[in-house]
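thought: fold this chain, then report.
action: predict
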Amino acid sequence: MMNRHRVSLTALIAAALVLALAVAGCGGDDDETTSGGTSGGEDLGTIEEGTLTVGTDTPFPPFEIGQPPDISGYDIEVVDAVAENLGLEVTYQDTTFDTIFRDTAQGQFDLAAAASTITPGREQTVDFSDPYYEAQQALVVPEGSDIASVDDLADTIVGAQDGTTGETFANDETEAAEVRGFPEGPDATAALTTGQVDAVIIDQPVALDAVEQQGGVEIVEEIQTDELYGFAIAPDSDPLREAVNGALTELKDDGTIQELYDKYFETKAPSSVLEGKNEPS
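observation:
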């Protein structure tokens, strides 16, 4: 009897130890999956554990509205949804657009969200996520202007935001006498009403916002450029880029991107966004 009792007690202790180890193992998996800076247990290599540090250039409504930490807009809501999907908090830092890609490549930001068109030139400095918006450019002039299209820009002063594709288009595709750069998009459209420039080339949603909010200006031509926006990420940050792309795919599939298109643009998200992919060059 005594031997049987000893054997039974030993068996119970062993079973309890196995159970305790199993429970501890499950707890460790949960901690790893949900800890900041990881996705499915994979280290994303963010600057600060548990935080996605995002560089942006604001104001650029409707993509970036306000100033950190009181910032909103289409880009911001997409980033917030991506970060939530990855289990990360978000910190936004305002910077200038003409340095944002260099600063991201040098590790100042995990990601840049600044209505940034994916271009081969920029991909020499940073990698880009899959697209989350398709943009066109617009030609904006003061109300009553004689300028009706880009063909009328010869011998004029054209404004644009520094470092943007609008500025590139004005330089490369028009006969403007001068292309004058401005630090912020709204600075360029405001310059129309003070006579500093004769016209502005800028992203079409930003032009619409200027017409509605600023007044005294009008869009006379939409310039079909079919640009795709992506989030800029430092080269060799493959785990973060792939995790962001995975989150974007879920946001496209579950209707979040379309909801945000409805909210900010009142239009249907195109297939180039909903099905678009981008591979680093």
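thought: worth noting. The chain is about 40% helix and 25% strand.
final: tokens above.
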